[in-house]
Amino acid sequence: AIELTVFAGVALSDTWRERPWERGLIRGPAEPVVATLADYADAGVTEMILSIGGSTRRRLATLEALVDAGLALDGPTPTRPEP
């Protein structure tokens, strides 16, 4: 079997443009971004690598917004080192 993986840049913004994949970046509000990622899954993509830019705080906020909009993260949860 062949596994399908997609590498996609993701950014959150207030506006949504149709066919975001043609611009090289999936950009828009969290809900349509998650819906677009779900379209890839429906097409047979089994893994997605998301590139999220910005500071650590911005990246975490983007991930939180995507999860709140329905994005399911699957995989190991990193553990924090003891201080």
Q: List how many beta strands DSSP finds.
A: 3
Low-pLDDT stretches are: none
Q: Which structural class do the helices and strands define?
A: alpha/beta
The number of distinct helices, counting runs of at least 4 residues, comes to 2
SSE string, helix = H, strand = E? EEHEH
As a whole number of angstroms, the C-alpha radius of gyration is 14 Å
Helix percentage:
25-40%
Largest sheet report: 3 strands, parallel
Q: Strand fraction band?
A: 15-25%
Mean pLDDT: 86
Strand order of the largest sheet: 2-1-3
Give the end-to-end Cα distance, rounded to a whole number of Å.
44 Å
Shape summary = globular
Short description:
By secondary structure, the chain is an alpha/beta fold. Helix content is 31%, strand content 22%.
Features:
31% helix; single chain; globular; alpha/beta; 83 residues; three-stranded parallel sheet
